[in-house]
Each structure stands twice: as structure tokens, then as C-alpha cells.
Specification:
heterodimer; A: about 290 residues; alpha/beta; six-stranded mixed sheet; five-stranded mixed sheet; B: MetI-like fold; about 10% strand
């Protein structure tokens, strides 16, 4: 990639190299052993300051979900370091990770499989509190339900009584339970309808204002990422190809891959879309 | 289809369906007459055995000379006496106790050994999994009865030990079952979420995994108990039981030796063994039905179904008549339509006799060479509408209205629909991967599909399909022809399905979210391909989608659906630029437009 992108492997931003945020340096994740070994993340560096949202876009297989899972300790880290609030958390054993659970939380893509169908909403929300030894769980559950805009009596009900959007609110409430400093949002709105998407994104932004949590917002949808992110990193085949300010990356992308990704996203106007199609063809013919 | 469902899907004919709780599997079990009969029988058997010490008329070993080979209904010996003059009824009661005790031992040892081993193997994986699988395979190869005979020579008749050993021999069935379930649950996101909040493994297994394992273990236990009774009887029958204590098997063995002088004495233990095993197996089946209900809707009795269908047809008919009376100007153009959908309704009956209408009177026209977008959110009925054209709705669905294709009403004439489907009306599905059979090569599936609708030789079909594969943009058609579905990418799979759809040279294509499962770059390529095919072949197309960008890219006309109705319909430029209906406006305003700065300033 002989491109004009100045700094194509690091997504370090204004708040970088601080002791208060997340710092990932040359992260590598590989699955399988010996000959079947596949490196999914190939040396990714990024930083997220407190209260900031870093958007991460990429196609399927680009390794974006794996990076999120590595931060949560759910993927095998083969190299590099992850530090959070000055502490190296690269490969903590599970027992030590429990303390960290307070700080890094997650909202998954699929609101159907991310909630145990046999537990009431209250049980789901109390679980993290109980692990952390919070005494007055019930009060906190009511607070959480209110915070994500669900009715008080939601606690006694089961996940199958809620719609996709409401389930995602429950998942967000669970992530908020321990007042984390960083929430990994792994395609949190991809399974939702348009109008629901807008509401859930609005909720995530409001919560960020209220709690000051930082987000790593992972999505394949440039439009969604642009709406919530301060900065955007574009991932391709396990490496970051472009990173920068949200408006710059989404409207004036420098890397040809980002441009193609951008132009491939259809817009709801037939004539503008026809022009974009033309541009995309030219770009492809140019061999990008 | 995921996402925000409306509180009540559409309006309902009759009463709305009551929500189904999760604890009502007991209720479902009790509504099954077979299950109730089995449970009553098993309960009676257990009570019969437990009551032995108090109610048995005689001690199990007491012999009376006058009762030797007594016939049934002899005074004092209701079921007669055996060859040694012992009362059969009394021995049966005592024997029941012993047999049931043996079965409980089998069950307990199998569950205690099998379930934890399965949990560890499934949850831990790796070396533990390999070891447990190896041991369990080894145990499975051991011949059970032979082992028990060998054990007998060492320990003599020892019921508890023999049954415990047998339980261990059965344990691999639990190991495999539990391991399979755990492997599935382990990859559920809620287990990842539990890890992320810091739950220990023990707590994750206790709170999340054991629950999932519960139902299959209960079902399996019923079958194991049934098998246990048969095995216990078999072991005793072979003479490995303790002849001094009554059990069903021992009684069967003794009466069998005596069969020519007292045939009746065989009947009682044999009946109990057979019936109890049968009851347990049938109960296991009923438990499976009750505990593992899929999303399957219960079928209504025929008469109730017919009543609902008539109601729906009447509603659709009335609407059509009304429309015909007030001839609207836009319908003048309908004459040249390739496909003309009028007043289509789709409803699903629920068990209480009402029906949820998911499509409530949809009108739609597609002309030759026209691509009609059908846009809506999940639950709007767009896929149901498309499937009603193809006749691919689930068998429970009730359909009303008319779908006129080339002069024939496909809803009124299912045979015409079957003739048109796959030949003149083709289908492109949403999930390319799940629509290819993993057991066959891409080529074999395409050839099979094409030869089902056209009379062609194998070589001819192959030849034609290779050319078409090249046409839909597959680089090395010969190579791809011999690949299995898991060896190709999602985008390639969708091209293969498009190739299959156009192979029969259809006039109309129904594409149900054909690009939703694909990455945007692949989506753009597939949309290009669909556009080119339309231009080349003059195809009409219904494109079901939730994405207005896709509509703008490909469609000529668009209809917006909400809650089973079309709220706005028209030329794509008019609808997208100047939406009239508030719902269309809301949808469009939630659509994010991210345009390149350079393109935005272009025109």
C-alpha cells in the first residue's frame, strides 16, 4: 500500500498514551496450532481516551470482532500488549480478570443469543453486581432499567417477552451495571430495524454523556460508525489501513480501500447513487 | 428476521393469541393423553411396589403346598401360585420394589458419571475432551451383558454393584448428549457476556449451562430407565439374580422353567416388564414433545381452519369487489402487468381459533423489465407477501386475494403456481449459504435444479450452466462447479444461486433481501449483476429489502409496507425524494446518508 496515509498502523488520537485510557500496541491474535495457524489480527495499535468513541469499520473477516474479544480476554492474544488505565491486561488469568470486569464491558450484536432465555431480566442484571459483591443489587437494577428506558416491571419478565430493540437495551443495562470505563459495542445495532437503530444509538450517546464511558464501536456500517464516533479506524484483513477524524474518514477518505468501501454503501437517492456507482466503477478499473 | 416486533402483529381475526409462558411444559405434558396414561401407570406401579410390605397378602418367600401352580383367582391367591407354592401377587409386589430399586441405581450411576463428564468435556474442550471421549468410546465398546456375567463370577449375585456397573456402561450416552448440548451453549453470546462480567467457570456452568442440559437429560433418563428394566430382567432371567429375593426377572426365569405346567405365571412378570418399559419410552417421547417445542405452531382442527380460511377469503373478496366498483385510474395500467397482486391476505391461525393477519390486503404490480422494491421493517409482512406469490408460505398459512401471473390466478390454482415456480417465477433467497445443500457440489445442485424444470441431458445442462456461471461473474466456472458450498464465499454462493434462478429462463424473479447477508462491496457487485440481468433478459423483479440505498440503486418503483399494509407506492424518485406518508418519511430520515464530499459537490 504505497499510499499517502501517514500513519497507517496506529490509531493513536489526541488522548493517546495516557494512563487513563486504553492503549493497544501491535496486537496479534492467532487461532489454531502449528500448520493450521491463522493470524486474524496482524499487529493492530490503537488508543482510546476516557469518554471517547473510536469507531472500527471493516468487512466480515477483517478481524474487527476479534479485536474486541481480545480486549475482553475472550480471544487468544499471540503478541503485543493491551494496557488499560496504566495496567497491562494482555493475558490476565480469569481470576485476576474479574477485577477488571468492572472496567471493560461489552454489548454484543445479537440481542437474542446474548441474554439467557431462562433468566429473568432482574437475574441477568444482578449477576454482574453479585460477582462484584455489590450489596444492594435490586436498587441498582431499578436505576439501570430507568437509565436505558425500560419500565420498572421489566425485571420480573423473561427475555422472550421483549423485542430486539428492548433486548439490546437490556444488554446495554447489563454492560452498565458495574459502571465500566470502556464498553465494547460489537455491532450493537446491526440486527435492528432502522427506526430502532436510531433509538439505540441515541441511547448509547446519552449514556456516554452521563457516565463518561469510552466506546470501541465496531460495525460494518460506515454510516452508523460515523454517527457515534469521534475517530474512525478502517480495518482490512487484520490490519488498520486508515485512521482519523470521523468526518474525514467517512467523507474524505484517503486510502483507496476506504474509498471503495464508502462508495459501495448505497445512498437513498437514485441519481446520486448512479453517480456513486460510476465513481466506484472507475475506481475499480483503476485497479484499487 | 430479528428486531423490534410490534406488540400485536397486525390485527387479528377473533381473539388475540395469549402469550405463551416458559413454565408451561408441565401443562403441555398434562394435556397429552398418552403422557398422562403413562404417568398414571408408572405411578401405580411404584405405589404397587412400595405398598408391598404392608399390603402383600403373603411374605415373598412363604410357600404353601396347596398353592403350588394354583390358577389365577384361586381364593387367597388372586394371581395364582408359582411352582414352589408361593403367592404370585405378593412376590410381584416385593419384586417390583427390587426391580425399581435396581433401575434407580442404574439411572443414578449413569447420571452421576455421565453428566459431569459431558459437562467437562464440552466446556473445557482440549485435552480433557479428548480423554473423556476416548474413555467413553472404550466403555461403549464393552459388551454389557458379558461384562455383568464376568462380574457375577467375581462377586456373586450383588444387585447394587451389578446395576451400578451397568449404569457406568450406559453413562457414555449421557456424556455424548451433554457434551453436544454444552458445545452448542458454550458459543452462545450470553456465556461470553457472563465471562466478561467476571463469572467463574463453576458459576457459568451452574447458572447457564446446567439449565440448557436439563431437558435432554430428563428425556434421556426416561429412555435409560426403560432400558434398565429390560436389562435388569435379562440379567436375572439369565440366572445371575439372587434367587432368594423376588424380582421381575427372577420371577420370569422361575415361571419360564415351569411354563408347561403353569403358563399363567409367565404372564404377570412379562406383562409388567413390557408395559413398564413401554410406558417409560412413551413418556420419554412425550417429554421430548413438551420440553423441546420448537417455534412450531400447533395445527388447528380442520374445521376451525376452514372457517378461518373462509373468513379470510370473504374479507379479501369483498375488498376486491369494492375496488372493482370504484375503478381507480392507476389500475388502468394494470393490464400490461406481468404480475398483478390484488388484495392478498396472509394469516396464521393460533390454537385458540383466532388468526393473526400478517398481510392485510396488499396490491402490487410488476411489469416486464421492471424492478419493484418492497420495503419495510421486520414484521411488516414483506417477505410473507413475496412468498405468497411463490406459494412458499408455511403449510399453516391461510392465504386470500388474487395473484395473477400471465392470466392465471396462482392463489386460486395451486397447480398453476407449482408449474410457474422455478420455471417462470424464480427465487433468490436471503441467506445464500443455508440455501445450498452442504452435501453436494455446487455443480450437482445446479444440474439437478435445472433438469427438474427442463428436459435436458446431463451434459447439455452442465454446458449451459457453465456458461451461465461465467455470466454471473464467477471466474473459473469449471473449478467452482466441483466445489462444495463450504469452499466458496458468501458472495460467490449468492452468484451461484442467481445462476440457478435464471437458468430456467424465468420472466419474474422474487429476490428476498438478496444482499443483506453480504458485505457492502459484494452487495454492490451483486446489485450490478441483477441490474445487468434485468437489462439483458427483460426480467421483472420483486426486490424485498429494508435498505433504501438498495432501492435507490436498483429499483424502478417502490412500495413501502408497514404492519401488513402498503402505506405508499410509486415511482422510485417520487417516493424517495418526496415521500407522502409519515412512515416513509420516518424511515427515510433514519437512513444515514454518508456521501463522499467530492460526489456530493459533483452535480
Amino acid at each position: 500500500m504505497a499510499e499517502t496515509v501517514s500513519d497507517h498502523t496506529t490509531a493513536t488520537g489526541p488522548g493517546a498514551v495516557s494512563d487513563s485510557g486504553l492503549q493497544v500496541t501491535d496486537l496479534r491474535v492467532a487461532y489454531g496450532r502449528r500448520r493450521g495457524r491463522v493470524e486474524v489480527v496482524k499487529g493492530v495499535s490503537l488508543a482510546i481516551a476516557p469518554g471517547e468513541t473510536l469507531g472500527m469499520v471493516g468487512e466480515s473477516g477483517s478481524g474487527k470482532t476479534t479485536i474486541g474479544r481480545a480486549l475482553l480476554g475472550l480471544a487468544p492474544v499471540a503478541g503485543g500488549t493491551i494496557t488499560f488505565r496504566g495496567q497491562d491486561i494482555t493475558s490476565l488469568p480469569r481470576s485476576r480478570r474479574r477485577a477488571l470486569a468492572r472496567d471493560i464491558q461489552v454489548v454484543f450484536q445479537d440481542p437474542y443469543s446474548s441474554l439467557n432465555p431462562s433468566m429473568t431480566i432482574e437475574d441477568i442484571l444482578v449477576e454482574p453486581l453479585r460477582v462484584a459483591g455489590v450489596a444492594d443489587g435490586r436498587t441498582r437494577v431499578r436505576e439501570l432499567l430507568e437509565q436505558v428506558g425500560l419500565p420498572d416491571d421489566a425485571g420480573e419478565r423473561y427475555p422472550n417477552e421483549f423485542s430486539g430493540g428492548q433486548r439490546q437495551r437490556i444488554a446495554i443495562a447489563r454492560a452498565l451495571a458495574l459502571r465500566p470505563g470502556l464498553i465494547i459495542c460489537d455491532e450493537p445495532t446491526s440486527a435492528l430495524d432502522l427506526t430502532t437503530q436510531a433509538k439505540v444509538l441515541g441511547l448509547l450517546r446519552r449514556i456516554q454523556r452521563e457516565t463518561g464511558a469510552a466506546y470501541l464501536f465496531i460495525s460494518h456500517d460506515l454510516g452508523v460508525v460515523r454517527e457515534v464516533s469521534d475517530r474512525i479506524a478502517v480495518l482490512r484483513e487484520g490490519a488498520i489501513v486508515e485512521t482519523g477524524d470521523s468526518e474525514q474518514v467517512s467523507l474524505r477518505p484517503a486510502h483507496p480501500y476506504t474509498r471503495r468501501l464508502q462508495l459501495a454503501t448505497p445512498v437513498p437517492d437514485p441519481d446520486v447513487q448512479a453517480r456513486r456507482r460510476q465513481r466506484r466503477r472507475e475506481l475499480m478499473e483503476a485497479g484499487a | 428476521m430479528t428486531a423490534e416486533l410490534p406488540a400485536a402483529p397486525g390485527d387479528t381475526v377473533g381473539r388475540p393469541a395469549a402469550p405463551r409462558g416458559r413454565r408451561d411444559w408441565v401443562g403441555r405434558l398434562l394435556r397429552n393423553p398418552m403422557a398422562v396414561a403413562c404417568m398414571v401407570f408408572l405411578l401405580a406401579t411404584v405405589l404397587f411396589g412400595l405398598a408391598g410390605p404392608w399390603l402383600a397378602p403373603h411374605p415373598p418367600g412363604a410357600t404353601q403346598l396347596d398353592a403350588v401352580n394354583a390358577r389365577p383367582f384361586t381364593p387367597g391367591h388372586l394371581l395364582g401360585g408359582d411352582g414352589s407354592g408361593r403367592d404370585i401377587l405378593s412376590r410381584l409386589m416385593w419384586g417390583t420394589q427390587r426391580t425399581l430399586f435396581a433401575c434407580v441405581i442404574i439411572l443414578c450411576s449413569a447420571v452421576i458419571v455421565g453428566v459431569p463428564a459431558g459437562l467437562v468435556a464440552g466446556y473445557r474442550g482440549g485435552a480433557a475432551d479428548s480423554l473423556i471421549n476416548w474413555v467413553s468410546d472404550l466403555v461403549m465398546t464393552l459388551p454389557g451383558i458379558v461384562l455383568l456375567i464376568a462380574l457375577y463370577t467375581l462377586t456373586g449375585p450383588n444387585l447394587v454393584l451389578a446395576m451400578a456397573v451397568f449404569g457406568v456402561l450406559v453413562a457414555p450416552s449421557y456424556v455424548r448428549l451433554v457434551r453436544g448440548v454444552v458445545l452448542g451453549v458454550r458459543s452462545e453470546l450470553y456465556v461470553d457476556a457472563a465471562k466478561a462480567v467476571g463469572l467463574s467457570d463453576a458459576r457459568i456452568i451452574g447458572r447457564h449451562i446446567l439449565w440448557a442440559v436439563r431437558a435432554p437429560v430428563i428425556i434421556q433418563s426416561s429412555f435409560v430407565l426403560g432400558a434398565g428394566i429390560a436389562i435388569q430382567a435379562a440379567v436375572d432371567f439369565l440366572g445371575l439374580g439372587d434367587p432368594s429375593k423376588a424380582s421381575w426377572g427372577v420371577m420370569l426365569q422361575e415361571s419360564f422353567a415351569n411354563i408347561y405346567t403353569n403358563g399363567w405365571s409367565v404372564v404377570w412378570p412379562a406383562t409388567l416388564i413390557t408395559w413398564t418399559s413401554l410406558a417409560l419410552v412413551l413418556l420419554g417421547n412425550a417429554l421430548r414433545d413438551a420440553l423441546q417445542v420448537g417455534a412450531s405452531r400447533h395445527t388447528l382442527p380442520r374445521r376451525a381452519r376452514q372457517r378461518l380460511a373462509a373468513l379470510l377469503a370473504e374479507k379479501a373478496g369483498a375488498e376486491l369487489a369494492e375496488e372493482a366498483a370504484t375503478e381507480r385510474p392507476e389500475r388502468a395500467a394494470a393490464g400490461e402487468a406481468l404480475l398483478s397482486v390484488r388484495g392478498v391476505r396472509v394469516a396464521y391461525p393460533s390454537t385458540d381459533g383466532s388468526a393473526a393477519e400478517v398481510v392485510q390486503g396488499v396490491d402490487l404490480d410488476v411489469r416486464k423489465g421492471e424492478i419493484r422494491g418492497l420495503v419495510g421493517e421486520s414484521g411488516s409482512g414483506k417477505t410473507q407477501t413475496a412468498c405468497s406469490v411463490l406459494g412458499l408460505l408455511s403449510p399453516q398459512a391461510l392465504v386470500g386475494g388474487s395473484v395473477v401471473f400471465d392470466g392465471e390466478d396462482l392463489i386460486a390454482d395451486p397447480a398453476a403456481q407449482a408449474r410457474a415456480r422455478g420455471r417462470r417465477i424464480a427465487y433468490i433467497p436471503q441467506e445464500p449459504m443455508t440455501n445450498l445443500d452442504p452435501c453436494f457440489t455446487v455443480g450437482a445442485q445446479l444440474v439437478y435444479g435445472l433438469r427438474a424444470v427442463r428436459r435436458l441431458g446431463r451434459q447439455e445442462a452442465r454446458h449451459e450452466l457453465l456458461a451461465l456461471l461465467a455470466r454471473v461473474g464467477i471466474k473459473e466456472p469449471e473449478h467452482v462447479f466441483g466445489l462444495y458450498p463450504h469452499e466458496i464465499s458468501g458472495g460467490m454462493a449468492q452468484r451461484v444461486l442467481i445462476c440457478g434462478a435464471i437458468a430456467a429462463d424465468p420472466d419474474l424473479i422474487i429476490a428476498d433481501e438478496p444482499t443483506t447477508a453480504l458485505d457492502v462491496r459484494v452487495q454492490a457487485e451483486v446489485l450490478d449483476l441483477l441490474r445487468e440481468l434485468r437489462d439483458e433478459r427483460g426480467l421483472g423483479m420483486i426486490l424485498v429489502t429494508h435498505n433504501f440505498g438498495v432501492v435507490a440503486d436498483l429499483c424502478d418503483a417502490v412500495s413501502v409496507m408497514r404492519d401488513g399494509r402498503i402505506v405508499e407506492s410509486g415511482d422510485v424518485r417520487t417516493v424517495l425524494r418526496d415521500p407522502r406518508h409519515p412512515y416513509t418519511q420516518e424511515l427515510l430520515s433514519s437512513t444515514r446518508v454518508v456521501d463522499l464530499a467530492e460526489v456530493a459537490t459533483d452535480g
